Amino acid sequence: MIQKMALDGLDRLGEKVIEGFQLSDDDLRALLSLESEEELEKLNYAARKVRNYYFGNRVFLNCFIYFSTYCKNQCAFCYYNCKNEINRYRLTKEEIKETCKALKGTGFHMIDLTMGEDPYYYEDPDRFVELVQLVKEELGLPIMISPGVMDKATLLKARKKGANFFALYQETYDIELYGKLRIGQSFNGRVNARLLLRSRDTA
Q1: Does domain 62-202 have CATH number 3.20.20.70?
Q2: Are 68 and 62 within 8 A, CB to CB?
Q3: Residue of 38, 30, 101, 29 lying closest to 65 (CA atoms)
Q4: Per residue in 174-186, is it b (16+ CB within 10 Å) or e — as a string?
Q5: pTM of the full predicted structure?
Q6: CB burial of residue 191 (10 Å; 0-12, 13-18, 19+)
Q7: What's the pLDDT at 97?
Q8: Which of 64, 55, 41 is nearest to 112 (CA)?
Q9: For residue 94, how many C-alpha atoms fall within 13 Å in the half-sphere facing its CB?
Q10: Backbone dihedral region of 6: left (phi > 0), alpha (psi from -120 to 50 degrees) or beta?
């Protein structure tokens, strides 16, 4: 285990990870606890080795299309909290298509379709799926969807229409803190939605 690893062991950490070594929770805690300049430099060296193995020195550009700022939630940290009196927008299909046209040839590698948990799309989730298909057809790029907690059927439809990745943000595993940050939202519901797409029955 890393917490017992001598400094010389850190030298080979990058190689071990590349060879398939799986970091445990205790390993990660130990790495995050390193303080000496020598240890941190060795850790940085290991991290660079892993990065270079998988990505080289290439830069990947992701573009967010924030297509709706309406949201039914009142997250304590979010500007788009439904209680905030702000100017909101919901892009039309035509506006999204025009956005895609403007993005063509600009060098982006992935598109992130992001929204608040907009009741308009939750009342009829197929509207969201149609947007995924539209962006895929227009740009042909990998798509990450960040729609909040959506039902299994909608997420699977979105994948069939071109969604490659699913982002569902959860700021903490501390249930009490979660309740203060994501007011009125189910902790287990968010965890289960994320685990859903990792399960074999959705492959």
Answers
A1: yes
A2: no
A3: 101
A4: eeeebeeebeebe
A5: 0.76
A6: middle
A7: 97
A8: 64
A9: 0
A10: beta
Q: Take residue 162 and report the two structure tokens written for it.
A: 């071109």
Beta strands at 110-115 and 62-68: parallel, antiparallel or unpaired:
parallel
Residues of the chain with CATH 3.20.20.70: 62-202
> Which residues in the chain land under pLDDT 50?
1, 3-7, 200
**Whats the size of the chain, residue-wise?**
203
Per residue, the 3-state secondary structure of the chain, as one string, reads CHHHCCHHHHHCHHHHHHCCCCCCHHHHHHHHCCCCHHHHHHHHHHHHHHHHHHHCCCCCCEEEEEEECCCCCCCCCCCCCCCCCCCCCECCHHHHHHHHHHHCCCCCCEEEEEECCCHHHHHCCHHHHHHHHHHHHHHCCCEEEECCCCCHHHHHHHHHCCEEEECCCCCCCCHHHHHHHCCCCCHHHHHHHHHHCCCHHHC
C-beta atoms surrounding 47 within 10 Å: 14
